[in-house]
What does this fold into?
Amino acid sequence: MQDSVHVQCSECPIRHRAVCARCETDELSRLEQIKYYRSFQAGQTVVWSGDRMEFVGSVVTGIAALTQTMEDGRRQMVGLLLPSDFVGRPGRATAAFDVTATTDLVMCCFRKKPFEDLMTTTPNIAQRLLEMTLDELDAAREWMLLLGRKTAREKIASLISIIARREASQHLRRVTGMLSVDLPLTREEMADYLGLTLETVSRQISALKKDGVISLEGNRRVSIPNLDRLLEETGDDSDGGMLV
Amino acid sequence: MQDSVHVQCSECPIRHRAVCARCETDELSRLEQIKYYRSFQAGQTVVWSGDRMEFVGSVVTGIAALTQTMEDGRRQMVGLLLPSDFVGRPGRATAAFDVTATTDLVMCCFRKKPFEDLMTTTPNIAQRLLEMTLDELDAAREWMLLLGRKTAREKIASLISIIARREASQHLRRVTGMLSVDLPLTREEMADYLGLTLETVSRQISALKKDGVISLEGNRRVSIPNLDRLLEETGDDSDGGMLV
DNA sequence: CTCCGAAATTGATCTGTGTCAAAGAGAGGA
DNA sequence: TCCTCTCTTTGACACAGATCAATTTCGGAG
It folds into this structure.
């Protein structure tokens, strides 16, 4: 299987890994024809669990969250969608989870039916989607280890290092100095992602700060003086792991 | 997208959802040529995380578990593979998780390279695999809710109801009377799946028994006098949910 | 049937995280 | 500038589940 080659979608400010990788020109142009954009404000819901899902698409800018809520209000975030992440299920009519914009959000969408038609005639797309979905599945399974077995402190360290990693891989601006990342989530959203309460999140962030593992500039920006030190706190093997 | 039509693989005692659905005869025969069987004893490891993975395949009989282990020994099961479940990642060289046989196990395997070749020439296979992988992803996300937010009692009830559901859908022997299922896992394995300790698993099973939600015949067989009563204990919405 | 080792149960106690409550800090608008 | 609302931090306490430690039960071999 050849290496994945990313092709730039015209107009789209970012690469469309979902649909453009390995695409030939004619495939791209067919995708262009059924493409459209949608914008959401922070806090807005993109789709509700159980709703008809008439499109698939990928995040262009901003961040969206997949969440699941129990009858009594307990909530668990089950996915964080960063730019270039794909949303939607070809072949399934309704959404299985709530999708909400946690920041202002722009998505590049394709109506589901035409996209599915295109998929049946364009093997590349199904294969690329399979690859992405398998990656997501691996990431979900890593996350299961975090939820089931890690301590609160390890969970926080893991979240910060994942956000740092993804942010780094996006912008490719690996500054030589101290790296610092924006936390695109409120304490409550972090708690929902990590299976904790917001109080515990806050306490553990304070503890990591006190121990010199991180430092804060305002509430939302974290500086990491020593990445290795942070990674030790995650409980993961130093080398591999953490695919997200 | 048409409904999935299951075609019986010759020799295989069960349907190969992974590869046979919607297959045409010639595709089937090409699959037959690269197919072989492997048997494992209970407790044996199929592949270790990080090892080269030279095959993909599906479970024929028995049960396998995907697990992840931290350096200090904390373990989390991240998937339970029942007959007809697919294992392996076309397009990735190494396994991301340990795969172990929790019971005696027979797998139907395909060498990875020929399978991948077949996949590129046979769009159906990639599409079918995509569908299955998306289902697994949804199931993993349901499981994240369980790990992050459910109480020990709810976790146990969820596990039993999932096993009951999968067993029922396999054998299609929906007995009219009281339904009873075999727990194919030790208490420790259940604990690893649920993110608990084996003592807590044992205690909660005892509690459910005392409350008349289930009853035990020996250690491994559970009777469910009232399925609705059990489902109430899972914490899930009464209707939808629990995709596994 | 009896014996043996592994698996499961049960008890006592400890601890990490949740819960409830209050006070502090930031950002945006008047 | 100050005010207000939301987000965050911190404290005191409670409790679910972990840990440590015996027993007890089960299932297979002889």
Observations:
- The radius of gyration of chain A is 19 Å.
- Residues 17-144 of chain A form a domain with the Jelly Rolls fold (CATH 2.60.120.10).
